[in-house]
Write a structure and sequence with these properties.
Blueprint (H helix, E strand, L loop, with lengths): L9 H12 L1 H8 L6 E2 L2 E2 L7 H13 L4 H18 L11 H4 L3 E6 L5 E6 L5 H5 L2 H16 L10 E6 L10 H17 L4 E7 L5 H9 L4 H4 L2 E4 L4 H6 L18 H4 L11
Helix pairs in contact: 1-3, 1-4, 2-4, 3-4, 7-8
């Protein structure tokens, strides 16, 4: 299997080496320890670990291969991880009965990329989003769990599915808007180029307005990865990426997902 590093351009390889030389200053300026590891990979300028090259190129690609801007982005991201206590977030516990119906990771696509499902319908906004800090920490934990499934050699991105079944215009209130904006900003600032494809399924009639609002905070590279699917096109579109055995029954596949089954058949997204 071709590794990710073999696909780098000569310009990217040059920029990676330049960004590596900046690592001691990045670690110092961000306030993290000199032996700091990011997603299990030491940020050592002398490292020959190809996983480090893959991580660094993510920040470079997010800043159009500009070393100075990538350095600034990585520095700010490490500061955020320190302040947000991101490196211990995998040990934290959140109400399972509440959040299992909001998002979960289920199997992988045809390229072995983990798939995260985010469900927005039938939620009590105050319970889910009312405690914004708790919601953000849960959502970051979900992202970090997905990253644990990446080897940064053959697999370095993931698939996301955003399901708007049962979402009404009234349910997209200020509490939900604030949470959505906050999550979007965190992901764009600190998790560059982790997204391979993002499906938006079962979009309500007023969804265009929501997309315009969310798009304000997204880069063009990110928006290019969006796949917006109508209700009758969900199965065919998702089967292009995910094997039928790994695709949940709710989307036309064969895989049973407790989180979706527990929502009841009436709440299941339509597949035809």
């Amino acid at each position: 299997m071709t590794t990710i590093t073999s696909t780098f351009t000569e310009d990217e390889k040059k920029s990676i080496n330049q960004l590596k030389e900046c690592l001691p200053d990045i670690l110092k300026d961000s306030g993290v320890p000199e032996n700091y590891t990011l997603w299990g990979v030491p940020l050592d300028k002398d490292s020959k670990d190809e996983r480090l090259d893959v991580i660094l190129v993510k920040f470079l690609q997010a800043r159009n291969n500009d070393v100075s801007l990538a350095k600034e982005m990585l520095t700010k991201s490490l500061k955020w991880r320190l302040e947000f206590r991101t490196d211990t977030i995998l040990t934290e516990s959140f109400p399972h009965d509440l959040f299992c119906k909001v998002g979960f990771i289920h199997k992988h696509d045809k390229k072995n990329r983990p798939v995260t499902y985010n469900l927005y319908g039938g939620l009590n906004n105050e319970e889910v989003f009312g405690n914004l800090d708790r919601f953000l920490r849960w959502r970051v934990q979900l992202m970090e769990k997905g990253i644990q499934l990446l080897d940064f050699k053959n697999v370095y991105q993931m698939i996301q599915v955003h399901d708007y079944n049962l979402v009404t215009f009234a349910s997209y209130d200020n509490t939900a808007k604030t949470a959505s904006k906050s999550v979007t900003q965190i992901m764009q600032d600190n998790y560059p180029e982790f997204l391979a494809v993002k499906f938006f399924v079962n979009i309500p009639w007023w969804g265009d307005w929501v997309f315009k609002f969310i798009s304000i905070f997204l880069s063009e590279q990110t928006k290019a990865k969006f796949v917006v699917v109508s209700a009758n096109g969900v199965k065919d579109s998702m089967l292009e990426f995910i094997d039928e055995d790994n695709l949940p029954v709710a989307y036309g596949g064969k895989s049973i997902v407790p989180e979706l089954e527990n929502k009841g058949s009436a709440d299941q997204p339509p597949t035809e």
